[in-house]
Each structure stands twice: as C-alpha cells, then as structure tokens.
C-alpha cells in the first residue's frame, strides 16, 4: 500500500485521544465513522486493519507540527541555521531568538502531535496481539511500530530532556513515558510524572532492538532494519556511548559505490535511508515557508552563520543557500505540489557517525577515511586534521553542512555542550531545554514538573 495514502487511512488507527502528559477532555477523531474506520470499541480484527493502523501511525510524523515543517524548523531556527524573516513572530520568531515560553503555541502543538503518534503506536501494538490470521506479518508490523515509538521518544528527549550540559548525565530529565494506549477518559488519562532520562533511554533501546531483530531492508519510505540501526547509532552518539554508536552504525548495510555521486540534497538513493514522503494531497509546508510568493510566504532564510561556515569550493553551499531565488534552499523546492520528502535518516549521517565515534574511541584512521568520504562528495580536499580533537571538530562541521535543515545541528550543540560557545548570546543555559507546554503542567497540578528556569 502506498505511503501516500496515509491521510486516507489515518482514521483506521482507532484513536479517540491525542494526549501528551495530561488530557482534560476527550476529542473524537471523527464524529461520523466512515466505512473504512475502526472504533476503539471494535478494535482491529484483520491484517488489513493493522496495515491501515500502521499507516495511521506513520501519518502522525507527516503532521505540519512535526516533520511536515514544525519540529525540525524550530530546532534549526534556535541553532541559527535558519533565520526567521516572516510574520510568525510569536511562534517561529521566538524560536529563532531562543525565547520559547511554555505558552508558545508551536511548542504545545508539536508536543501534542508527538504524543498522538505514540498513542497510535501503542494502540496498534495492543490490537495486533488479537489478530490470529496466519498471514498477518505481526513481528514486522510491530517492528515498524516500535521503531516509530522509539523515534518519537528520541525526539521528545532531544528537545525536552537531558540536562543543560547535554545528554546521558546523572539526573537527566526525561519525559512522560506512556507505553500503553489511551482510548477512554479516566484512569488512562490520569497525569503521570516525568520518567527519568535513563528510563526513557531504556525504552528507546528496547524498541529499537526489537525493530532491528524483526525488520529487513535497506531504505524506503517505511522504517527498515537499516533505518532502525541508524537510529540506534544516532541515539548512542547523542548519549555519548561512542563504542555503541560505532557498533550500530557499522551494521548499516553499505550503500553502492555511487554514494559519492548521489544528489547533495540527500533526497535520492542510496543516501536516503528513511524518507518521510508527502504528496500533492498529503502536503508538507517546507517549500511554502522557504520560498516567496507565488507558492510560498518566505518565512525562512538561510542563517548567515551557516552560509559563512562553508569552506571555499563546498558544493553544498548552493544547496543550503540557493541564489535563485535568493534566500532559499534546494532541499525543499516544490511550492506547487508541496511534496518534498523529509530526510529522517540518511547514509551520510551514518558515515559521519562512524567517523566521530571512531575519533572519540581512538581509531583515527577510520575517522579520517570516513570523514574524507563526505568531504570528497562535497568537492573538498581531504581533511588536514591529524588529532582526535581536530578530527571531531571537522566532523561536527561536516554534520552541520551536510545535514542542514534536517533538525540535527541543535542537538549536536547540546550533546557536545557547545550551545553557549557557538551561540554566545544564549546566556540563559536553562533554555538549552525546551519548556514543557504550560497546559500539561497545569492539568497535572504540577505532578509533571516544568523544566527548571521556565
């Protein structure tokens, strides 16, 4: 079934609630149940129900407030890769100044859609246990679903969790950990305290391990084994578990030798491992926010610090800061159809993960070789770095330039504890973590604690 059918089948995910930490009311997903809908009181009875439910789970990622533009654009604005030049001053404008507050609408919307996605997965996992059809691919269905749940919690933890100096430190803040479905107001919707960062990390690892064991495949618009391995490597790098990051990244199936010739936008095989796909009827808003009229509203421009960071001769400059029209990017261009894919996982990131993890664990030869793969592809000469520290610095620069506008750089700054060094005007270190939506804190009677400082 085509991934472009997400919205058509989303109602079959049988969700009654879109919840985060606390929910004050029951919002029906639909008022009149269409023929292809399955209510939570009926549940999933067939493999077709589960297949549609899985599409509904993927559909959450496509939301405008998630990877349809909101989540990654917010963190790129905060990191300075994007400059806000539009009129959404109280949402994206505040993000661009790192002045997000708990009552910011975009913060609330993004938090809610991620938890909505988690709830869709939880419901699918529970209901899939009831399907007895021997033709039902239960383990692969659950593998994709659990990888999605891990992806959601990775994104929640990246933005709202950890500590001011990074991730994986004692006492790091987590997020509410919900691993069972919510289908009715009552005990299921009762507020819960935030789990520790360590507990959320354990859940992420368990989900990804299950996915790695039960999935196959290298790339596509659905999560494959390769994508699950790459996500695990990303997570271990963020948690500063460099040996583990190297172990998982090395298991990602090598791409063909034509990787060096793949489009620098990262949107084509063999670079694209997992792309969130969109269509003319299932649109995203990236090009709309980047491009001027007609077709867009030009809210975003390339950040000047990003533009200046490109070395002479870097082919990625023309991608990250297009000149026709000025102030745009070639990563998102389809203003008419709004169906640019979003790169959730790329092989270029895996190469750079191997390089960094190798450098941090003393294998400078591997680090140098992998770094030069990316540099050569970008039209640059081999690195001149010879020490571990210099190699890591070059690798981090290449990550910024290679993965621009893909929601990575801010979390690189956080995990390396260099936010204040890279962005010296950000003197309030508590803002290295996003604020929880104020409604979540209020409805829980502060059982769910706000991040310190807000």
UniProtKB/TrEMBL annotation:
InterPro entries: SusD-like_N, SusD_RagB_dom, TPR-like_helical_dom_sf
Subcellular location, principal: membrane
Keywords: Cell outer membrane, Membrane, Signal
Subcellular location: Cell outer membrane
Gene3D superfamilies: 1.25.40.390
Domain RagB/SusD: 329-454
Domain SusD-like N-terminal: 52-237
Family the UniProt entry places it in: Belongs to the SusD family.
The protein's name: RagB/SusD family nutrient uptake outer membrane protein
């Amino acid at each position: 079934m085509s991934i472009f059918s997400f919205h058509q089948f989303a109602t079959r995910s049988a969700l009654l609630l879109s919840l985060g930490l606390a929910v004050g009311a029951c919002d029906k997903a639909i008022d009149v149940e269409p023929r292809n809908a399955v209510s939570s009181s009926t549940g999933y009875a067939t493999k077709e129900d589960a297949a549609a439910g899985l599409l509904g789970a993927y559909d959450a990622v496509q939301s405008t407030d998630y990877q349809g533009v909101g989540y990654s654009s917010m963190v790129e604005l905060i990191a300075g890769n994007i400059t806000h030049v539009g009129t959404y001053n109280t949402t994206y404008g505040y993000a661009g100044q790192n002045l997000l507050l708990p009552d910011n609408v975009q913060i609330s919307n993004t938090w809610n859609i991620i938890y909505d996605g988690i709830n869709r997965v939880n419901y699918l996992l529970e209901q899939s246990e009831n399907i007895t059809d021997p033709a039902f691919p239960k383990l692969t269905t659950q593998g994709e679903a659990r990888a999605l749940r891990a992806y959601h919690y990775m994104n929640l933890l990246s933005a709202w969790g950890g500590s001011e100096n990074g991730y994986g430190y004692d006492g790091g803040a987590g997020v509410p950990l919900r691993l069972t479905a919510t289908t009715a107001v009552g005990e299921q919707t009762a507020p819960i305290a935030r789990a520790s960062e360590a507990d959320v990390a354990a859940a992420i690892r368990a989900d990804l391990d299950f996915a790695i064991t039960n999935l196959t495949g290298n790339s596509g618009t659905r999560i494959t084994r390769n994508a699950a391995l790459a996500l695990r490597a990303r997570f271990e790098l963020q948690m500063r578990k460099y040996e583990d990051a190297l172990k998982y990244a090395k298991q990602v199936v090598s791409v063909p030798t034509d990787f060096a010739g793949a489009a620098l936008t990262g949107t084509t095989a063999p670079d694209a491992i997992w792309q969130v796909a969109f269509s003319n009827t299932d649109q995203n808003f990236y090009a709309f926010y980047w491009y001027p009229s007609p077709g867009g509203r030009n809210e975003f421009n390339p950040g000047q610090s990003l533009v200046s960071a490109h070395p002479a001769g870097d082919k990625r400059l023309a991608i990250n800061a297009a000149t026709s029209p000025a102030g745009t990017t070639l990563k998102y261009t389809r203003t008419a159809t709004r169906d640019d894919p979003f790169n959730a996982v790329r092989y270029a990131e895996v190469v750079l993960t191997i390089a960094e993890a190798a450098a941090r664990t003393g294998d400078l030869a591997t680090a140098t070789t992998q770094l030069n793969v990316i540099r050569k592809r970008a039209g640059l000469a081999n690195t001149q770095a010879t020490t571990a520290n210099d190699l890591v610095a070059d690798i981090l620069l290449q990550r910024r330039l290679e993965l621009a506008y893909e929601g990575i750089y801010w979390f690189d700054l956080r995990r390396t504890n260099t936010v204040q060094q890279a962005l010296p005007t950000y003197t309030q270190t508590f803002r290295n973590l996003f604020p929880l939506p104020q409604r979540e804190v209020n409805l829980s009677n502060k059982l769910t604690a706000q991040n310190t400082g807000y």
